[in-house]
Amino acid sequence: MGLVLALLGTGLAVALAGVGSSIGIGYAGQASAGAMTEHPESFGRFLILTALPGTQGIYGFVAAFFLMMKINLMGGVPVDLTLAQGWSLLLAALPIAILGLVSAIHQGKVCAAGVGLTVKRPAESMKAVVLAVFVEFYAVLGLLVTIFLIIGIKV
Predict the structure, then answer these.
(1) Which of 29, 43, 135, 142 could form a disulfide with 95 if both were Cys (CB 3.0 to 4.6 A apart)?
(2) In degrees, to the nearest 5, what angle opens at C-alpha 17 toward C-alphas 106 and 144?
(3) How sure is the predictor about 131, in pLDDT bands with cuts at 50, 70 and 90?
(4) Alpha carbon distance 126, 42 (integer Å)
């Protein structure tokens, strides 16, 4: 049962952060596609803003990799986890799962607004990126907490 809980945490880290990234990229991508109809020369600027919410999905993958390594899922026979260890690993996955989901969605909204800024003032596009990075910061903290928790759990 402990292994099942750890695997659930692994799945949640990837799935929730990935869903958030998909939604966030969707917001920014829609804004970028609309803006490119009149400003195709700004594709590179729009691409950066569209890609930024995708990083949370990558963070979820990194967390899942750490979890899989912790339980030896990639090295042969998985570790026989107690119920407490399984719950601990599941809970360790939640910071990046939840923060990845929420921050990617909000970062997508900030990036979509940044596309509007870029359309009106192309020289100011990096300010839009900086604003989006502020949202990203909390996903990075979630990933770090998840990694520290995984490392600290004895299996």
Answers:
(1) 142
(2) 95
(3) very high
(4) 12
